[in-house]
Design brief:
It is built from 5 helices and 2 strands. With 181 residues, the chain is mainly α. The chain has a two-stranded antiparallel sheet with strand order 1-2. Helix 4 (86-116) runs antiparallel to helix 5 (146-178). The protein is elongated, with a radius of gyration of 27 Å.
Length: 181
Amino acid sequence: MINKSLTTLGMVINNLTDGKSTFVPYRDSKLTRVLQESLGGNARTALIVTCSPAKDNSDETVSTLKFGQRAKNIKNKAKVNKDESLAELKKKCEDYEKEISQLKTKVEKLERQLKKKPSQQVEDVEEVKDDDSQDSVRKIDIPDEPNDTEDLLAGDDLLAGDLNAEMTNLNNELDEIKEPI
């Protein structure tokens, strides 16, 4: 049973460091079940590897060191265990709703500017603050040729789709936050 548990531990470590695997077989042995939080969970992992200097044990030593190297590559996904109060959740909801309304206003302004100035430059004034908390302005050149304009509008449709996807994600987050309230 010890060898089976160690083999399963090796499979778990391989799946965690592989990057391609979506399933990690923690339940296949008692050892991996106990170590689940330490292996890629919310805890620090320490592994002590014992090696022998004897020539007779060189194969085991090499295999043990390779095992230790694979275990070293495990990335833990640490989360802060914090329960937010009702006031904090409400504040988050208000912030998300404010950001959504700002994004909707920005999309509407851009659409109006595109309709008004089809063959000129359109200024994109961002109302939502960047990470450095400064407003940014960018110019979009809209060419006079119809094919290029259609291509540009198709690109704007993609931008609008991205914004709509972002707003949908924010709405989903808001719904998740509002559920406990």
